[in-house]
Fold this sequence. Notes:
The protein is built from two helices and 18 strands. The two termini are 24 Å apart. The strands form three sheets. The protein has an eight-stranded antiparallel beta barrel. Strands 11-12-13-14-15-16-17-18 form an eight-stranded antiparallel beta barrel. A two-stranded antiparallel ribbon has the order 1-2. It is mainly beta and 243 residues long. Helix content is 7%, strand content 55%.
Amino acid sequence: MKMLTAWGGVAAAGVLLVMGGCAATSSSPATSSASQASSDNRAPFFPSALFPGSAQRFDAWHCSPAQQHLVTATNANDLRLWSLHGAWRLPQAVVASGARYQDGEISFWNRGEKALVETPRGQLQCSLAGQRAALTRDDKPGVMFFARGNEPGWSVALAHDTPTLTMQTNYGEESLQLPYMVSVMDNEAGRVVLESADVAPFYRVRIDAGACFDSMSGEPFPARVTLTYGGEQYSGCGQGIAP
């Protein structure tokens, strides 16, 4: 199977880069599988578009002329690329200089702190704007996905083995550990929605694959996360954490 099939396609409006998510299976079987995992008290499998792969860091890129902000994670044989609209995986191509990753007419050519993104509709000239070390199980033991946000500070940590989450709000003053159920598992779009599992209080966590930047530090992440809890809605960024 080609990488393009596994991660969806890219379209451009002007020079706007639009990317699809991970699609190993259709959304209906994925939702059924996730529900079964929850009922069996096992943590579900999340779309790989939410993870860095084997990459040890995320890179943030500021691009023009469309004022796009991209996030990349470089693996041994491919590059994971996130825009504001989704994710894409590009296999490595052979070039004389720099590092080029390409699938069809979509490519990312990295030369040090500069990069050129090419699409059928145009080009983006990008400059490296920041980096962040990818979270690991050493950083977050027992956690398969971690998200955080600011003003007020909050975080959500999903356990790697059971469908439970630990939620901290109000700068850590309130902490809850709760079970969850999966209401949406869309591998093609890289989207997951979790909700409270027949217990109070009600909450919802929505996760979407796509470039995200911490509102205070500007650090890059591969997922945008929205937490709804206590009548409030919180926005932040997250990352899948592989074993």
